[in-house]
Each structure stands twice: as structure tokens, then as C-alpha cells.
Write a structure and sequence with these properties.
Layout (H helix, E strand, L loop, with lengths): L4 H27 L4 E6 L16 E7 L3 H14 L5 E4 L12 E7 L8 H10 L1 E12 L4 H17 L9 H7 L2 E10 L6 E9 L14
Parallel strand pairs: 1-2, 1-4, 2-3, 4-5
Antiparallel strand pairs: 5-7, 6-7
Length: 218
């Protein structure tokens, strides 16, 4: 993956209003579920670091980030965070390979919009899950109607300035096709063109065709 030094330098300032208004609280609620050995894919500049529980539920955290400019900022935040469990930063994409699979929790926040092949990323995440593990996610998805058409028209210029982000992916469908089903799910609104954003915890389909949790909507 090519580095995006300008985007990395501006990312925290650009997203600060959304973090204050919506995303920070969503991250905190979601990451309260993290437990055991945790993998975070597409860790970016470390927006999740402040929200991991310090209760002892997490025993180790691997943070995978393929963009070198993002990763350098992430490493500095890890040092400053002083979390009560070991944290390791890795040069790896959402498609793997991951250093210490299987994991009890995998975290993906605003990641599947930007990976080149989201189906491959979901397959790699599924392969890295321990029995009973959860995938904790925040992902913006395609809007319907006119908003969706505008998103599609904006994809080229938007991706060029936003680190490859794609606005109109049906990420929930990709997750379901990969065998993940939402056990809990909520929605938050981000400013257009990001629009509808899903926040949830997903689990794997059980052997024999039954399903943990319930299918994600839409």
C-alpha cells in the first residue's frame, strides 16, 4: 500500500469534530466489549487507543497498519498511551498475514471502505478468529437513493484525497458473504458524504448451518 503522508498528517485534525460529536462515544461503547488477545486492523493513527478498556479484559493488542505515514503516528501514540497490556504495531494490511492468530477480538473501524479487496480482508479476519471471538466494527456504508448516486459519482476524487476511501460499498453484505453475522448493531450518522455508519459486534456462522447472533439488516 502506498503511504499517504499528507492525509496522515491531516487525519486527526480533519476527524476531530466527528470524534467529538459521534465517533468517540461510539468507539468507547464498542471497545468496552474487547477481551483477550485483540487484533486491530487498519489501526491508522490510533484513534481507538484511548478507548480500550483498562479493566484487565484485554491481555494483548496487535495493531496492523500498512501505511507507513499512519504507522509512525500510531507508534508515537502507543508510547504515550501507557496501556496496561502489551501493544505491538505491525506493518500489515487488513488482508494479513497477522502475527499471532487466533484472536479473541478483531477490531475494524473505518477500514473496509479503503482496502483494495474487502472480501479478501473479511476472509483474512474470519480466518484469524478464535472460537467464540467477536469482530467489533464501525464502517460507513452506501446510502440509498440520491445520496447513494452522489456518493458513487464522488468516489474518484474522494478516494484520491482520503487515502483510498470508497463511499458506496455495501460492507454489511461483504461481511455476511464472508460468514459474519451481527450479534449487536446500531447506527450513527456522520456528515455527508460518509452518511450512514454502522456500529456493531459480529460473530461467525456456527458449524452445521446455524448462526450466532442475527443477520445484519439490509
Amino acid at each position: 500500500m502506498p503511504d499517504h503522508p499528507v492525509f496522515a498528517a491531516a487525519y486527526d485534525r480533519i476527524t476531530a469534530p466527528m470524534e467529538k460529536r459521534v465517533l468517540g462515544a461510539a468507539r468507547r461503547r464498542l471497545l468496552a466489549r474487547a477481551r483477550g488477545r485483540v487484533l486491530e486492523v487498519g489501526a491508522g493513527t490510533g484513534a481507538n487507543l484511548a478507548h480500550y478498556p483498562r479493566s484487565g479484559a484485554v491481555i494483548a493488542l496487535d495493531m496492523a497498519e500498512p501505511d507507513g505515514a499512519m504507522r509512525r503516528r500510531l507508534a508515537a501514540k502507543v508510547d504515550a498511551a501507557a496501556l496496561p497490556f502489551p501493544v505491538f504495531v505491525h506493518d500489515a494490511g487488513a488482508e494479513g498475514p497477522f502475527p499471532s492468530a487466533p484472536y479473541d477480538t478483531v477490531v475494524s473501524t473505518l477500514v473496509l471502505c479503503a482496502v483494495p479487496d474487502p472480501a479478501s480482508a473479511v476472509a483474512a479476519i474470519v480466518a484469524a478468529l478464535a472460537e467464540g471471538a467477536e469482530v467489533l466494527y464501525i464502517e460507513h456504508v452506501a446510502a440509498g437513493g440520491l445520496k447513494g448516486r452522489v456518493q458513487s459519482a464522488m468516489n474518484g476524487p474522494w478516494g484520491a484525497i482520503a487515502g483510498g476511501c470508497t463511499l458506496d460499498r455495501d460492507t454489511l453484505a461483504t461481511m455476511r458473504a464472508g460468514g459474519l453475522f451481527a450479534a449487536e448493531q446500531d447506527w450513527v450518522d456522520l456528515p455527508f458524504p460518509l452518511s450512514a455508519t454502522t456500529v456493531g459486534a459480529a460473530r461467525l456462522r456456527l458449524r452445521g448451518g446455524s448462526v450466532e447472533g442475527v443477520p445484519a439488516p439490509g
